[in-house]
Amino acid sequence: MPPASDRMTTNEQPLIISQRAGRLLTITLNDPRRRNALGTALFDQLERALDLATAPEVSDPPSVIVLGATGSAFCAGFDLEACVQDAALLPTFVDRLGRLTARIRALPAVVVARVQGAALAGGCALVMSCDIVHASADATFGYPVHRIGVSPAVNVPVLLATAGLGAARRIALSGEIITARQAESLGMVQSVHADERTLHAAVAALAESLCAKGPHALRTTKAWLNQVDGTDAAGFLGAAATRAVQATIDVCRTAESRSMLESFWQQRRSRA
User: Fold this and answer.
1) Entry pTM
2) Residue range 215-244: average pLDDT?
3) How far apart are the C-alpha atoms of 257 and 253, rounded to whole Å?
């Protein structure tokens, strides 16, 4: 039997849906049965969608990207079942997540996250790498990864730029899961909506407004903002991101992490 993260093939359904309309590209995580868990196949397809949209030969790259998801959760983190089956996958996933979030932050396009339900661990990291975040009232955010012996350090640099040192320290160390309204008060979310219908409508209106603006002006503004907050590759936070990824990988390879992950997964299965 193939690893859990590879069982869903593109013959059954795509794990990533990409839709282009003018200057807008909508990328949708599409594995609702697994709460859009980040596994090998989903990473592959998400990276491929970004490759196709930003390839040098693309004459009209999108100026706005909406990152959303199907189902009750935006993304609940890594595919832990696959990580339990193969000890090498957890550090690999951390490395891929680090490169993916840095890439999203550096994209010339303005990236809008459209979040419903849980955006936890790696899912929260994806959201925090975006430029603007809209969420439904039922959305939740956080990095509850200490319980599996993992550090959220991979996303701390961008979290610092978004929420500030005090909030970032609290969220990264406590592992608490916060509501959309709490995340809004910390600057992690820019707008909260009553339900998914109003969330989709608001994000569609925002995307339309952004697409009507000058694409060069948008790119320049985003690049300048990344320089100011230090999250560009040469900035003090962007440069720290590589070290943060390596620090997280090192933690994943410890006996403590392996033991806690297996224990957590056994407890989850016993409750299922």
Assistant:
1) 0.93
2) 94
3) 7
